[in-house]
Specification:
Low-confidence stretches: 227-231, 370-412, 521-541, 748-757
Oligomer: single chain
Distance between the termini: 119 Å
Shape: flat
Strand content: under 5%
Radius of gyration: 56 Å
Structural class: mainly alpha
Helix content: 55-70%
Largest sheet: none
Length: 757
């Protein structure tokens, strides 16, 4: 029974001491131990086996039991001490809690006392500072009242002085006083309900109105609108009046500027009336010379009268440009039939030069009237470029060649570009028609020169090179494009583009396609026996060497035209307005030159192909069933190789600058020759086994020649392009397989067999 009770006690104790893994891990971290008895998975059997691994070790069992009992007694003592120590913990905790509550109550009482004292102190401070605040408010109100009374005194005195100075025309003092009065009056906007303040404000407005009317009358008296003479002149009174106008309503300033400029340019309207001889385009220089003199005269006489920020010199020049544009447009509409190209270009050139001078002298701030935009500071001494010697501009004005020279492109930041020259745009059709006529004559001259000089000769620098007329055409195109873009970037550029397209097509048709040699379908009428007996060099190519050079030259020229036309399209799109860019399209013309290139390559292929036709015909009619032994390559192979060696080096040499098109020629020839060769193989019937072996040898010889075709006859050996080599290997391998299949079939058949039927 004792043992059973101990066993049940052990089971109950194990159930009670079973801890969760988290608690066990925490205990191990706080109290690390290497003792097996402290492990959660302690096993008594394993522990005993560890203590007594063998039977001999049982001799020490008493010592082990004594050690364990001693350890148990120590643990019991420790547990007993801890349990006894915990009996007083609850009582100590309650005592500590009571002490904490008492301390909190004492602290709360002290805080309340501090708060009461703070409220008493605040009340005391308020009572002390109440009188100080009242004094501060009184001081602030007194200061405001004194300031307002001072402003009122200044305003009243200023208005009286302003009215008196206005009557005496003392504009110098008025300019400074008026601005001060206006600034002071701004402080009284919130007091306008007071009758006296409102009365002073009305007096200021009346004084401003009177000043404006008076200043305009003074300028009208000094610079009368009627008549070209100027009885008045610059004076200190008018200079001070301009300073006053800066403070008055901006409309006063604008009216002064408008009247002065109109009076200053009244003489111009009389001198260059529509019915006057000097109004026509051939004397357009006189217009610009007149305004140059007027601007110099203005700077000398009136430069100090107007404030610098008014930019009067620029305003006069800008108004002159507007008037000139209107007058020139009017006179050109009236005499439109008298406008010639040289006269129009002369007028445009002089006008654009004048606009360039304006850009050098002025900033263009009056064109946009941007508020706050200031002109760069300049000395008061005249710095007008119009003072430069004008004789250099007049020299050579009658020379026609100067008109054809393209001028420098206008600066992109020239604010005056087109301010006058815009009037010429409706009449640029004269220039476009002239270019149409000039280009037509240029194409006719190219045709005549080609016929007179003849095609390029083989062995010369011209052989296979780009035709000189091509470069001349595009140089003229560039000159026309630059010239027209300086005149206009709108519809005239589109019209010029149409002209370019027209003559690009004519050049392709008349100069390039029109001069390609004509191919003939006649193969030459050679007999089989004569072809088999021909010797190397006895048969001439279908095209002569000069004709081959001509075809290559036309091909190179077409390639140059194709690339340059693409560049021309890009340049035209850069010159024209953005909204018109989509209307510029030279794709059709580039396709035309591509067609010329394809036709030229096709002619070269047809020529070499036709030269090989008699040899292939002879191959198909040879008695292959009578061949008794396999020898060297057959005569027809020798003939084909001879023609290839004659033509290909010439073509390669003349297409050295356009290597890709020579490669195209080789590919096209191979694509044409190999199917034709296989077709003639099928016509060779009947064939003996020896004949098939001879044909196989001939096929291998042709394959070798075709693989070397791009570099045949050249001292510099170049590897053929991979695409070309693939075509040759694929085509000739098919021919070899046909012949090999015939040989294999022949071994099990009769000596003569018609395999290809």
């Amino acid at each position: 029974m004792m043992e059973e009770e101990e066993f049940e006690f052990a089971e109950d104790l194990e159930a009670i001491l079973h801890l969760t893994p988290e608690v066990q891990l925490a205990i191990e971290q706080v109290f690390p131990s290497q003792d097996p008895l402290d492990r959660a998975d302690f096993n008594a059997v394993e522990y005993i086996n560890t203590l007594f691994p063998t039977e001999q070790s049982l001799a020490n069992i008493d010592d082990v039991v004594n050690k364990i009992r001693l350890k148990i007694r120590r643990l019991d003592d420790n547990i007993r001490t801890v349990v006894r120590g915990q009996t007083n913990v609850g009582q100590d905790g309650r005592q500590a809690l009571e002490e904490a509550q008492i301390a909190i109550q004492q602290l709360f009482g002290k805080i309340k006392d501090i708060k009461d004292k703070a409220e008493k102190s605040e009340q005391m401070v308020k009572e002390i500072t109440r009188d100080i605040k009242q004094l501060d408010h009184a001081k602030r109100h007194l200061t405001t009242s004194i300031t307002t009374l001072n402003h009122l005194h200044m305003l009243a005195g200023g208005v009286d002085s302003l009215e008196a100075m206005t009557r005496k025309r003392q504009y110098g003092e008025v300019a400074n006083l008026l601005q001060g009065v206006v600034n002071v009056l701004e402080h009284f906007h919130k007091y306008m309900s007071i009758p006296q303040i409102r009365q002073l404000s009305e007096r200021v407005k009346a004084a401003q109105s009177e000043l404006g009317t008076q200043i305009l009358a003074d300028f009208e008296e000094a610079f009368p609108s009627q008549g070209s003479k100027r009885p008045g002149g610059p004076s200190n009174v008018l200079r001070d009046a301009c300073l006053v106008a800066n403070v008055l309503d901006p409309r006063i300033k604008q009216e002064i500027i408008k009247k002065f400029i109109r009076q200053h340019l009244s003489e111009y309207l009389v001198l260059f009336q529509e019915n006057q001889d000097v109004a026509w385009l051939d004397k357009i220089d006189r217009r610009y010379a007149w305004i140059k003199r007027q601007l110099v005269d203005y700077e000398e006489k009136y430069g100090r009268m107007f404030p610098e920020e008014w930019s009067m010199t620029e305003r006069i020049a800008v108004e002159f440009c507007h008037i000139t544009r209107v007058e020139l447009a009017k006179v050109m509409r009236t005499r439109a039939k008298e406008i010639e190209v040289k006269l129009l270009l002369f007028a445009i050139q002089r006008t654009t030069n004048f606009e360039g001078l304006l850009a050098k002298r002025f900033t263009g701030c009056t064109l946009t009237d941007i508020p706050g935009k200031k002109r760069p500071e300049s000395p008061l001494e005249p710095t007008n470029p119009f003072l430069e010697d004008e004789s250099s501009e007049d020299v050579g004005t009658e020379k026609d060649e100067d008109l054809a020279k393209p001028r420098k492109p206008k600066a992109p930041d020239n604010p005056f570009h087109g301010i006058v020259s815009k009037c010429f745009e409706p009449h640029l059709y004269v220039y476009i028609e002239s270019q149409d006529k000039n280009l037509g004559e240029l194409i006719d001259r190219f045709v005549a020169d080609f016929r007179a000089q003849g095609p390029p000769k083989a062995g010369t620098e011209e052989g296979g090179a780009v035709l000189p007329s091509c470069a001349d055409l595009f140089v003229y195109y560039k000159k026309c494009m630059v010239q027209c873009s300086q005149l206009s970037t709108g519809e005239p550029m589109i019209a010029l583009t149409t002209i370019f397209q027209k003559f690009l097509r004519e050049y392709a048709w008349k100069i390039l396609s029109g001069n390609l040699p004509k191919s003939s379908s006649n193969s030459g009428g050679l007999t089989i026996s004569s072809l088999l007996k021909e010797k190397e060099g006895s048969e001439a190519a279908k095209f002569t060497v000069d004709e081959l050079c001509l075809i290559c030259s036309i091909l190179s020229t077409a390639e140059y035209c194709l690339a340059t036309t693409q560049q021309l399209e890009e340049k035209l799109k850069e010159k024209v307005d953005k909204i018109l860019m989509e209307r510029i399209n030279l794709t059709g013309e580039m396709d035309t030159f591509s067609t010329v290139i394809s036709n030229s390559i096709q002619l070269l292929v047809q020529d070499l192909d036709a030269a090989c036709d008699p040899a292939l015909t002879a191959m198909s009619k040879m008695p292959w069933q009578s061949v008794e032994h396999v020898g060297d390559q057959s005569p027809y192979v020798t003939s084909i190789i001879m023609h290839i060696k004659q033509n290909v080096p010439i073509i390669r040499e003349n297409l050295a600058s356009t290597r890709k098109y020579f490669t195209q020629f080789c590919i096209k020839f191979t694509n044409s020759f190999i199917p034709k060769f296989i077709n003639h193989l099928f016509r060779c019937k009947p064939i003996s086994m020896v004949g098939a072996e001879q044909l196989l040898l001939d096929t291998h010889s042709l394959k070798t020649v075709l693989l070397d075709l791009p570099s045949i006859g050249s001292q510099v050996l170049r590897k053929a392009p991979a695409s070309y080599t693939k075509i040759v290997v694929k085509g000739m391998t098919r021919a070899e397989m046909i012949l090999k299949l015939h040989s294999l079939t022949f071994k099990g058949s009769e000596p003569e067999i018609d395999l290809f039927v």
